[in-house]
Design brief:
GO terms for molecular function: calcium ion binding; GDP phosphatase activity; UDP phosphatase activity. The protein has one domain (3-185): Apyrase (Neuraminidase, 6 Propeller), CATH 2.120.10.100. 5% of the residues lie in helices and 42% in strands. The protein has one helix and 17 strands. It has one helix at 145-154, and strands spanning 3-6, 9-11, 20-21, 27-29, 34-36, 49-52, 58-59, 67-72, 76-82, 98-102, 105-109, 115-116, 122-124, 129-133, 139-143, 162-171, 176-185.
Length: 187
C-alpha cells in the first residue's frame, strides 16, 4: 500500500496507532497518532509531500530538480537517485505520479500520457516511461508506451484522448497492475 503524507506529518510505523488490515483487504481499524518533525534537505527547496512505499522508505520525486530524496529512520532526508524524463537522456526532470514495489524494485511511473503542445500536437512519449530502481539506486528507464496505450484502449480511448494516472500499484496477491486515473478524456 502506498501512503501520501503531506509536509512533515508522519504516522507511527507499525505502532499501536496504525492501520490494521485483514487478509481480505478490509480495513478493520484506523487510528492515527501524528509525529511532527521538521526535516530539511540541504538543497534549498522543500517538497509538497512524501510517499511511503512497500519497502518502508519515505520518498518523493521532485521533477524540477530531477532527484528523488529518501528519508532514513525518520531523522533526515538525503538525495538518493536522479530521475530524468523519458529515456533518461534529456535535461527535463521526470514528473513521478505513482510508486510501487515489484520483485524488490521500486517502480516510479509518470503521467502515462503523451506530451503535447497546447494545440494537442504530439511532442514526445517521455511521460509514458517508468523508472525501475533497485535497492542500491540503479535506475533503468523503461518505455511503457505500449502498456499505457493498451490500458487507455481498454476503456475506449485513443490519441488524442488520454488518461492521466494518479496511482499505479502492483499486487503480489493478484499478480496484476492496478491503476487509478486522475483525469481522462476521449478527445
Amino acid at each position: 500500500m502506498n501512503l501520501l503524507i503531506a509536509l512533515t506529518a508522519f504516522a507511527a510505523p507499525g505502532g499501536a496507532h496504525s492501520w490494521v488490515i485483514t487478509p481480505s483487504g478490509v480495513v478493520t481499524h484506523v487510528d492515527w497518532t501524528w509525529y511532527y518533525k521538521a526535516l530539511r534537505l540541504k538543497v534549498g527547496f522543500s517538497f509538497p509531500g512524501y510517499m511511503i512505499h512497500e519497502s518502508g522508505q519515505w520518498s518523493d520525486v521532485h521533477e524540477k530538480w530531477f532527484f528523488m530524496p529518501r528519508m532514513d529512520n525518520f531523522t533526515h532526508m538525503e538525495p538518493w537517485v536522479f530521475l530524468k524524463d523519458g529515456p533518461g537522456n534529456v535535461t527535463k526532470g521526470f514528473k513521478g505520479e505513482w510508486m510501487t514495489v515489484r520483485e524488490n524494485k521500486l517502480y516510479v511511473g509518470g503521467l502515462g500520457k503523451e506530451w503535447t503542445t497546447p494545440n494537442g500536437d504530439l511532442l514526445n512519449y517521455n511521460p509514458m516511461y517508468v523508472k525501475v530502481i533497485t535497492p542500491s539506486g540503479v535506475v533503468t528507464h523503461v518505455d511503457w508506451t505500449w502498456y499505457y496505450k493498451a490500458l487507455r484502449l481498454k476503456v475506449g480511448f485513443s490519441f488524442p484522448g488520454y488518461m492521466i494516472h494518479e496511482s499505479g500499484q502492483w499486487s503480489d496477491v493478484h499478480e496484476k497492475w492496478f491503476f487509478m486515473p486522475r483525469s481522462q478524456t476521449k478527445n
